[in-house]
């Protein structure tokens, strides 16, 4: 799940969070993904300043850490918008109209998938199954799932959150 934008932190605060997350996983094997999740949960994204600290702590190259961050679409390298809209792209949702929802959202919000609108109000992300296949198409707004979505319901949901098209 991609979390909405958190209050911006200073570089020192980001480094402190990074070190705290690293300490929680110290001495364990296979901790890169949990560390990245922990940092993103705390900060809202994986700041570039965290990468060399993570690499050094795990005795990996910066390229290895950066490669994992860029491989998984869940990880963000920049802050998300104040709101995050995820539209399910799995087969069941596609069959029930998710493609039309995606096109509408992109057009009305003025941004494509993996992007944040220029005013920082909203980030649009694809997600590949919310587990609501029997109630498709589904979206998630700010971490809360919504099923049986229609273009009209999507407009109303965004308006409830103060997101204007």
Low-confidence stretches: none
Give the fraction of residues assigned to helices.
40-55%
Tell me, rounded to a whole number, the average pLDDT.
92
Number of strands: 5
Distance between the termini: 23 Å
Overall shape: it is elongated
Gyration radius, in Å: 17 Å
Strand order of the largest sheet: 2-3-1-4-5
Individual helix count? 7
SSE order, as H and E?
A: HHHHEHHEEEEH
Structural class estimated from helices and strands: alpha+beta
The biggest sheet, with number of strands, parallel, antiparallel or mixed sense and barrel status, is: 5 strands, mixed
Q: What portion of the residues fall into strands of 2 or more residues?
A: 5-15%
Protein name: Formate dehydrogenase subunit gamma
Keywords: 2Fe-2S, Iron, Iron-sulfur, Metal-binding
Family: Belongs to the complex I 24 kDa subunit family.
Cofactor: [2Fe-2S] cluster
